[in-house]
Design a protein that fits this description.
alpha/beta; about 800 residues; globular; 28 helices
Amino acid sequence: MQRRNFLKGMALGVTAAPMLSSAKILSNSKKVTTATHWGPLEATIEDGKLTEVEPLSFDSNPPLMNKAVRSRTYDETRVLYPYVREGFLKDRHKSDTTMRGKDKFVRVSWEKVNQIIYEEIARCQRDFGPESIYAGSYGWFGIGNLNNPQTLLKRMLNLTGGFVDSKGTYSTGAISVVTPIVMGTNHYFRHTSLDNIAKHTQTLVLIGCDLVRTTQINWDVPAHKSYDGFVKIKNSVKEGKLKVISINPLRTDSDKFFDAKNIKIIPNTDVALMVAMCYHLYETGLYDKNFIERYTVGFDKFKDYFTGKSDGVKKDPAWASKITGISEKEIKELTQTMAKTTTMIMPGWSLQRQDHGEMGNWAVFTLTAMLGQIGKNGGGCGASYHGDGNVGSTERVGVSIPGIAVGKPMTYNAGTGNDTSSFEQSFSNKAIPVAKISDMLLNPGKSIDYNGTKVEFADIKLIYWAGGNPMHHHQDRNKMIKAWQKPEVIINQDPYWTASSRMADIVLPACTEIERDDISVVGSESKTGLIALKKGIEPVGESKADYDIFTDIADKFGRKDLFTEGRDAKGWAKYFYEQAMEQAVAKGIELPKFEAFWEKGYYEFTKMEQGGDDYVAFKEFVEDPIENQLGTPSGRIEIFSKKVASYGYDDCEGYAKFYEPAEWLGNATKDFPYHLISPHPRHRLHSQLNNTILRKVYEVNEREPVLINPENAKEKGIVDGDLVLVSSKRGKILCGAVVTDDVRKDVVCVAEGAWYDPQDPGEIGSMCVHGDVNVLTIDKGTSKLAQGNISHTALVNIEKFTGTAPKIKVFSKPKM
């Protein structure tokens, strides 16, 4: 089917699930509310089958992703039953772990698989203690305040003696550490409203930021209210009141939406650009000296760096031009424009997913402070406008909904079932930065630096992963496969046969949102409303809700009552809702009784926060920095941090500094001459939905697209639609070429999230035939401060593929 015709069909609401016919109208029909990470929905159920979904009326900008809900529900990649790897079923924890990804899977009963899981957890707790079990389980699971599989997993394991946890996220590994240090708040601080920006901002600067694309999704249910603000900003651009400048090696969806001027910077050099801009502000006297003296500390230390006093190198625009690929003239003009107009800076999280990623946002905060516009209408910066919570949208008077708690670790003293052993263990405190999982598995006992502390890697015997796809999220896939061969037991709980399921010993079939009851908030920042996730169909195959899976395992340990507290799924939804009702009373909101709410399916908050549409971040601090001090040690913006400097880190010295990245165009070689960037996909949530009909919208030759500049394509003899081999020092992937001047010369772009499909499953070094970009990326911490990931730092080569294209296998079931 031609892409244009396919999209036309999608717009008409035509979905593709071969098991069903959407044209046939059946008498046994009902509609139920449900939701996903990309929107609130009403689902049509006919004769027990999901036939279509439609967005609810209060969704401001429903994405195309809605069209994939039916497709994913009945996709061939659904895990329909519990399975155990053949070698593991025979030899259990003594099995050959190099057979993960190669072995056949054997279908077993729920009773049998639960007994195996019970015995393996009990064995590890008894013989090795909680520091042998890793439950850092991370990723974007199905929506719902009860069926949060990661919380439920940790709740269950706490009842058995404890586990090793993780901290931080792949999304915000560096910024979540830096923002409290510099600004005294987390990166989700309440941002200046988009309405205020539309009215007052004259220059909007996006740095590595594609907010129009990335705000399609939300950790809770999005109502896409930030889109309303984007439209107002766009109208201001059309009226000539506001100019948008985007600093990005890629011309993004946001650049096109706002008609932005795109400055194609060399990747990973944003800090050099901003340091040089600070130099130019200082040298020309355009910086706000009064703001620096009154509201910040440590400027002199930073000044010694950019003037060259500390190292003999002036960080002027001429210096930055050689590094960034932006002319000296353009750097000066950009600086002057930002200083002489009301300027708002919006950095994306891509800025901190680079080598030394802590420095990116530190530089943004420093540059913004020198401009002196923080706390003023239309000025300043925001660290998470492109994030997943409708940041900057006008807030409503609403309430939040609690979720089920992890609970406190308890010793386990009485075995049940076949194992009557008794053991007592204490909770593990060896939590790791989330992006260090491969390093932990490969280097038990090793210590690393992390934000002024030491983290010692545990010796992990058992991994239980529930919700999420680590064989997507993590960098350097081949290193990860090697690490994945170390534990004795790997359990994966997921609705689909992802690479993570295929690389496990035990696979448990979890169901999707439409197959269970739950509840959620809509719009975590905008506070749009509350929604009931109603069970519309019976779980596909023998899949179960995550809550029910963990309830059964807790029952094996004799602790079902402690786990459930006597509630089923709907009972928990009612419990959460009634707690929200208590909040509502204090705010003057009259929520309906639970039964009425559940019947309707949603409740929308309509009263707007007073002045919410004109909110200005840090206004109170600027008006009175004594009374309204920031949460930093000094109470002010810390351009230089004594605390960080005291750590003595050689890769993070306590102020915004440009460090040469491990790989970038400045050290490119003949073998690897191009810089790889890997932004969010347009029609997926990371790897979610890659197994649906939406692949027809964007794939090229059944592969993930790679964007390549026309000049580079001509050099390589590549034309649009060619199958190409993209390689780095770490691996190789096949992609479909898209030749476009949207991407900077010598830069190639492959979106993250394509399902890993190795030509030789389970083999280290095997080519991914489908285009998983993390086969190519580097598994290294940003610095000793945050240990975030550096997925945007990698050099690659690209060549036309001339062989026979290997068959895609990942969207069919594995050997059984």
